Amino acid sequence: MSRFTLTENKTFKECYYSATLENGFKITIIPKDRKAMFAMVCCNFGGADIKYERDGVIHTLPSGTAHFLEHKMFETEDGRDSFLDFDSFGGNANAYTSFSNTCYYFSCTENFYENLNVLLSSVSSIHCSDDSVEKEKKIIAREITMYDDSPSTNVGRNLRQALYHAHPTIYPISGSVETISEITKETLYTAYEHFYVPSNLSLCVCGDVDMDKVLSAVEQYFDLPRTERPKTIYEAEPEHVVRDRIVESSVVASALYCIGFKCTPSERNDYESTRRATAMRLAISLMFGRASDFFCQSYESGLINERFYAGYTSSENSAYIAISGSGNDYDAVAERVCEEIERRKEIFFTHEQILREKKAAYAESLTLFDSCEDLTASMAACAHLDYDEFDCIEMLRDVTEQEIRDAIGSIDTRNRSISIIQKGTDL
User: Is the full-model pTM beyond 0.90?
Assistant: First the structure.
């Protein structure tokens, strides 16, 4: 336990312990007196890591490689599925890939350390054959086809492709049937060797556990020299959008739409960029949240319905506002949204409105600590950053009115696109 550092927030009475091995592997333990325990290994490698530089050499991976690798990490040396081992110890395991991370996790109420050994063993090495890779291509191709048939997925994907010229966000995390056909066993081994290095991995555990036993388990499986993560390369991205409109037809009861505003991105996902993102999210909630004047008036008039949602997405070298909903008045909605943004640049919110919004967001953020699973996922990802969830919550309290005003002022309502999934004529 002496190798762990305690971090606590006395305001909302939460804490965690953290340690970093000499090779860079990061461990976070969140003590919780709960029967269920969670553990997650997070690799800072996701759908956006397509082109990168390592030791002066430029590498390019087919889109979908990180997700494909996730599927193969539970294959053992003898060709078995390690999910069977989790089952034998009463563990419920799964994994997922985002644009920035790949995460492997389990929950259990007993045999925690046995399940932890299975998790660490699965991630500490890769075993796959040419035949198993070819078989997996068929499985993932079916998964891709399923998502391609989802209008709600397509409306968001199309928006990103209308907004961005070159950023990897235009590619689905799982890739396409064409790109995964290019993936070979050698592709997966190369990606694993380059990205699944200790300095690019973190383990987060939430529950009543022995911290020294957790540390010993990590050291057993990751007793490796330090190797640095490759540097992801992003192509130059023009400020303007690709196109102002993209339309598809599908089997929908009424049209789906997603209105996007391309924003100025940050080159790093650090504390300062996260603070700016916090200010922007508060600004969007003030303008378009369920308690906003815009939402109440537009809902009452029938312009929008309960499916209306506004949010902000930011990552390295990309940032955009997405406002989605359903109905055939999408052009009128887009016009009203732009009018509201421009109006709020001139007629700002009152101190009382901002304070109320900040309090609501602060209270909602604290509910994260009620879910061990969500808290584990958030803290595992934060281990690779220069801030944690404690900082994110405090940002909500500390962000100034001027920062929120600046966030609204930075939105260029002319630099927008709209993605529409309209009702097919055969419906």
Answer: yes
